[in-house]
Fold each of these.
Amino acid sequence: MRGIFGLLFTTLALGHVVPYGLDADNTPALLERQVQPVRLTSVKVAPIRTSEYPFASGECDNGQVVKLQAAIIEARELLSTAGDLLKNKGSQFTDTYEEWFGPDKTPCFTCSKVSESIRKHNFEAPHRDLGLPFERIGQTLSPNQLDPRALTFTCWPIGEDHCQARFIAGTINPGLHPGSGLDFAGTLIGLCPRFFDSPDLQTVIQQFQGSNQHQTENSAGLTLVHEMQHVLATTGTKRNCTDVIVGNAVAYDTERCRGLSNEDKIKNAQNMAFFALDVRANQGRG
Ligand SMILES: [Zn+2]
């Protein structure tokens, strides 16, 4: 619990340099005022347009919606494969688990609770929520019109500020974002054009298994596995992950993710993604 609060302070302290309460790939996380999460009942894709820079959003075109749906299927497969592995007795003592979540040194009567919690909240819950009924909304919504019970995706245009900064995607939890003054009624995941140009999973697995593993990119499905770790309504507050900062960089690559303290490993979103990728890439490995 101390680690969780430590991260909260870390991310809050960075709020001044990361405006708008946006947690996105390639930027440190910022936790903003959070409303009580509700259980999600649907997945939506909708244009979000406001006069407030930088949340202006373009509408996803047909091709982007098709790619998003394929990414959701891929993410669900990755999540279920990882979740299934964690059902195995003693799975918290496997090499894969220890590599991404750290060795479990707690007494055995409690140690399984950590891996069980990760299985339920970081793999099974995202798998469940991404499988909810999918609906495409034509109406342009403002942040305060977001459905509190929906996970809403939107397609940010290339000129959007965060996309200009080479973000892939970003998650905004419900609540007031002090930087922008906007009140988000529901959960929003913004997708930058880079998301739709992501390498496919087979390419990413080859990168992961190659000699330059630290340059492994995210497939679109793997990006969704990562972003879902930030969705409060899905993970719940105790297992909600952030993007842990190492020095002045965020732990996104394999080296930094492996180098985190054991406490941070189980709080870093990309460690969840790499665990899922590792399980998928090395099926059969103990
Ligand atoms: Zn992140």
Amino acid sequence: MASMLSSASAAGAAPNARPAAPAAPAQRRFRFCPHCATPLEDVQKFGALRPVCPACGFVYFRDPKVAVVGLLSTPAGDGAEGEEARVLLVRRGVQPGKGLWALPGGFLDADELPAAGLQRELLEETGLRVRVDSLLDIYTLETPSGATGFVMAFATSLDQPAGRSAHPAPVAADDVTEARWFARSELPTDLAFNSTRALLHAWHNQAGEPALPAPHTAAQPAAPEPRRTP
Ligand SMILES: [Zn+2]
């Protein structure tokens, strides 16, 4: 449901913003109180200039967005016909990174814990049920919309009855147009985010595999500086 950008841009959108022409980060701001519709005024509050409602006292805090992604991988088989280890990637159907491969995931909803949100996103985007095993890393959220935040990356594993295929066919839906398993030798290079590159690089270089060179990050858009004044 919550894509990497559609939620982010909503967070800072002006009530009358035109969706077809996203404003630069500095222009994306709330102009009216969401409680009483009084025009907001910039006031020095809690150490920064913040939009404050002069009528009801509402203070708009630009809180960070929190996204979750899941590295769903399977170990190599150990039999004579043992399968290669594989990782599940999705091709994004929305910006940012539209058309590029990424780990499945998305933004947390309000009141949603990270593991539950990740399980929901995996199910929505791939039709697969997973267990959330461990936190791998936390990355700066990359969004050109002006929203700032973090991506929590988790190791996940399939949660399905024993005896089923080690690589059940994913069903792409929601924010993705394609979902498939990749062996280490066939990982795509058109990847959506720095976090995707870093996590796949680490997965590829796990024990027993020839090391890949470190991913290039210099050409990627830098994460936006946190803005203290909207
Ligand atoms: Zn108000």
